[in-house]
Please model this.
Amino acid sequence: GQNIDQPTEMTATEGAIVQINCTYQTSGFNGLFWYQQHAGEAPTFLSYNVLDGLEEKGRFSSFLSRSKGYSYLLLKELQMKDSASYLCAGADSNYQLIWGAGTKLIIKP
Amino acid sequence: DTEVTQTPKHLVMGMTNKKSLKCEQHMGHRAMYWYKQKAKKPPELMFVYSYEKLSINESVPSRFSPECPNSSLLNLHLHALQPEDSALYLCASSQDGGVYNEQFFGPGTRLTVL
Model:
């Protein structure tokens, strides 16, 4: 079957670093996406990994290990506006996204 | 223009009503998607149009009827909905539904069925 697992909720402090993990099982694999979704709003694209390794984009980085079926999203220098849900989604052999349930990130001052 | 627009933003309808949700993009994308999202849940894929042809229908009840009049527009026609259909309906588009294709989401239509 196809499955994406990520923690339900995480809490971190403003200015700190947080890592959100995601493990996946998909029928075929065409990459791993991370999206950010603020409450009541649409998801917005953060990153895409299809090869092993770390992709850095400003304060956000995403890592992929295909052999382990594992990815993480790393957020540095946390700001209050980073409070949101972070959705991990794997693209299967038909390029359709299999979505995780999302990780709600709470940032405290 | 890197935006996907959706109308209306909010919709309240009775179980006997007929209404339509509209989605538009002008990025030249050839794949368009309808998702349904319940609170605190991930988006659930409903339909995918690729090059204006319905390519995926995820066993959605017939009371939801998609339409793709042209490559920029996507409609979702609603008829005889149930209260459990109340949700956020998201439209998305991507270049062509293939590899490396990030999906751009519209702001969604919040639907309440009474």
About this structure: Chain A has a mean pLDDT of 93. Chain A touches chain B at residues 30-31, 33, 40-45, 48, 50, 87, 89, 91, 94-97, 99-102, 104 (CB under 8 Å). DSSP finds no helices and eleven strands in chain A.
